[in-house]
Write a structure and sequence with these properties.
2 copies of one chain form a homodimer. By secondary structure, the first copy, chain A, is of the alpha/beta class. Chain A has a domain at about 75-110 and about 240-450: Rossmann fold (3-Layer(aba) Sandwich), CATH 3.40.50.1100. The first copy, chain A, has helices at about 45-50, 55-60, 70-75, 90-95, 115-130, 140-155, 165-170, 170-180, 195-200, 210-220, 235-240, 245-255, 270-285, 300-305, 350-355, 365-380, 385-405, 425-430, 440-450, and strands at about 5, 15-20, 65-70, 85, 100-105, 135-140, 155-165, 185, 225-230, 260-265, 290-295, 305-310, 320-325, 360-365, 410-415. The first copy, chain A, has a 7-stranded mixed sheet, with helices on both faces. In chain A, a hairpin with an 8-residue loop joins strand 12 and strand 13 (about 320-325). The radius of gyration of chain A is 20 Å and the shape is globular. The mean pLDDT of chain A is about 95. At the A-B interface, helix 3, helix 6, helix 8, helix 16 and helix 18 of A face helix 3, helix 6, helix 8, helix 15 and helix 17 of B.
Chain lengths: ~450, ~450
């Protein structure tokens, strides 16, 4: 008899509803409204209408617990969902730990990460509203490729402003987006006024997520047929990702265990929220408490070293101002390989839970993360994305604590994506060329002085 | 009610036996024994013992219908098997065809293709025989990365001789193998006598699969702790791949349909055999006949333009001599991007079935294959490997024939792997830089003159 290792749900068990944690927030744990970047007044739905379809704007402010997943979205989910829950038996053995380690694997989606969970939903709602074109930014390219694939499926044109440094470093991600039919330009680009202004001053600018957001927003504002799309941070993005956690609840039941510790990496917060919110919701509704850990890079430690305050979502001050943990919108994280975690802020909902100690956060260096990633690959076969190695590192640390204490904890972590497009980072690690960026206390302090 | 799109088997339904088509060959369809490359006498098991573990040698000559899959192999299969069967509903719609198109998707394995099905089995049997180290060759790297991952799981050192042209063109594949812990050298290398001899004459040699095989075999023969491993062509490799077809039979039952047409690409023949042999076996045991099509590149058209005869498996005449369709062991296929299909010969079992008209073969140019691959990616989300696009092209052609004739055929094809490491090929296609290599009649004729 083979021991069960992979827990697959039947297609019929794909959640029919997204879970909205806003419905379960206890008294005293209240959301702060996002503010208009110019007026600093609370944003209203009409303020956001040029950027997003109304269905998403209503999800952004909804306090309904369950929001139905539209049929055409669920149809496409069925091509790669439910994602597997896997017991990492060989990793457990390699660590000689009494802990049981489970991971939810989101890397089997078309774009290789959890990002399609929201990209498909966003493309659908835009299509419903008659939108022909979506502009977005991307750093490492996980988000851009997910939106490019979703756009292809719904017949929506996609324009991606890709941070120039990544555009040059990761040509495969760029070609993947183009293969799906998207137009991709290196940002700053000559396609927008903000891009041209920056290039006039800094012809060799490597770009940044903040600049790319500015270009995508400017592109959107100038055209009637175009909306803007964001792959993390916003409430509706967290919402769409909860299919991960909802499935994991059913799958842990199949495995006959309940997690003691729930772990995910956090950049903007969406893969963390996706796994954790449904579990935290159970606690908030009177269930048992789990240890829930968001893991971030020491090079961009918003939850662990940032300040909980109102700050801009982008460098150029064009995006909404949100109450969140932030390192300051001027803060430019060091070029670690986990490009998806290089964000100065954090999802307001994730920030709120952290502020009220409903979740924990840890920050780690990238070298120990790659070390964990290689150990994982050699035992479990899957090559993790650099972002995901942060969750693996924390899971291994908890498992090693269990080894020392003799506790047989059940650990559940989110393996948010594969690392097939990140092999130059693995090569740097394997050849000893990787650097750890020390906690940049001075830079964060300076950036925070200009925040809010 | 969502229409079913993905058919997932429970882990318990992973086959317990590999299917050996040798048991069902009808009278008059007989295997010809492989010959020793020096003596041209039929090979005996002891001849092969320096290269392979005895368990694999016995599988090579077995006529048992069912060979039990060892528990530890099945344990690892459970981390990525059963693979999904997917109905390509959006592709059907894009083609406006009455045909039903299903694909079996092998790209979710650790190495991203069907290759781990045999790599894990081969690593297991070598480990059982106390082997510490395996030497192999790889072209594009699908096979090398599968064996590297399997070696890591069983604690076996893996040395990969990678064709130099690929080594330089596909650094990500090389780094993937190294991340799994394998040693990779560009072939021809300074590590073997045959490599050094070639480099002395041709310091800039781009290498070939034939040269890399020679190096791996030489490496093996020189060391007591080392065996050799091959990722296609041999009977035991075809055997291990039949888990694909066995699963697909159960999954088509779930879908409530039976295929009329079964399609896979063919280089050495293993992904074709993996899908097709279990279905052909049903026919041979008295069931209905299916149209079974092997699709090969026009740049290496062994089944469609080669000769059925005894020929060497490698250029250097160190590998066994086998009765097969061959373009001649001197034939060097043009550098098409489907590196896994650039082989002068073909699996003897696949060749035998073709020779007796139990299967068909088609050959296609690479540009229409990439065209099919891009259409597939934009509709189904999955980026196919260049090899797999050959199967997609044939499936689309059959579906378009159905559109013309009004027939609602059921098509099943094998999507053997993803193309995450082949994006430079897609870029060449998208930018119009791809070339089609015309059927090189003269070269094949010349090569065949030296064959056998």
């Amino acid at each position: 008899m083979v021991e069960r290792t992979r827990f697959m749900l039947d297609e019929e068990k794909i959640p029919r509803f997204w879970y909205n944690i806003a419905a379960d927030l206890p008294a005293g744990v209240e959301q702060s409204p996002p503010l208009h970047p110019m007026t600093h007044q609370p944003l209203t739905p009409p303020d956001l209408a040029p950027l997003f379809p109304m269905a998403l704007i209503m999800q952004e402010v909804s306090t309904e617990r369950e929001i139905e997943i539209p049929g055409p979205v669920r149809d496409i989910y069925t091509t790669f969902r439910p994602s597997p829950l896997v017991r990492a038996r060989r990793l457990e053995k390699a660590l000689d730990t009494p802990a049981h380690i489970y991971f939810k694997y989101e890397g089997l989606s078309p774009a290789g990460s959890h990002k399609p969970n929201t990209a498909i939903a966003q493309a659908f709602y835009n299509k419903e509203e008659g939108i022909k074109r979506i502009a977005t930014e991307t750093g490492a390219g996980q988000w851009g490729s997910a939106l490019a694939a979703a756009g292809a499926m719904f017949g929506i044109e996609v324009k991606v402003y890709m941070v120039r440094a990544s555009y040059n470093q990761k040509p495969y991600r760029r070609i993947l987006m183009e293969t799906y039919g998207a137009s991709v330009v290196a940002s700053p680009s000559m396609d927008t006024e903000s891009g041209r202004a920056i290039l006039a001053q800094h012809p060799d600018s490597p770009g940044s997520l903040g600049i790319a957001i500015s270009e995508a927003v400017e592109d959107t504002m100038k055209r009637d047929d175009t909306h803007y799309s964001l792959g993390s941070v916003l409430n509706h993005v967290m919402l769409h990702q909860t299919v991960i956690g909802e499935e994991s609840i059913l799958q842990m039941e199949m495995a006959g265990e309940e997690p003691d510790v729930i772990i995910a990496c956090a950049g903007g917060g969406s893969n963390f929220a996706g796994l954790a919110f449904p579990w935290v919701g159970r606690t908030l509704r009177g269930g048992r408490k789990y240890q829930v850990i968001a893991v971030e890079p020491l090079a961009a430690p918003s939850l662990t070293r940032g300040k909980y305050m109102y700050d801009y979502g982008d460098t150029a001050k064009m995006a909404p101002v949100a109450k969140m943990y932030t390192l300051g919108h001027d803060f430019v994280p060091e070029p670690i390989h986990a490009g998806g975690l290089r964000y100065h802020g954090m999802s307001p909902l994730v920030s709120l839970l952290k502020h009220h100690n409903l979740i924990e956060a840890r920050s780690v260096h990238q070298i120990p993360c790659f070390q964990a990633g290689v150990l994982f690959a050699r035992n479990e076969g899957i090559l993790p994305a650099p972002e995901s190695t942060h969750a693996i590192r924390a899971a291994i640390d908890v498992a090693l604590d269990c080894k020392a204490s003799g506790e047989a904890k059940v650990i559940l972590f989110n393996l948010s994506g594969h690392g097939h497009f990140d092999l130059s980072a693995y090569e740097a690690y394997l050849s000893g060329k990787l650097e750890d960026y020390e906690y940049p206390a001075k830079e964060i302090k300076e950036a925070l002085a200009h925040a809010g």
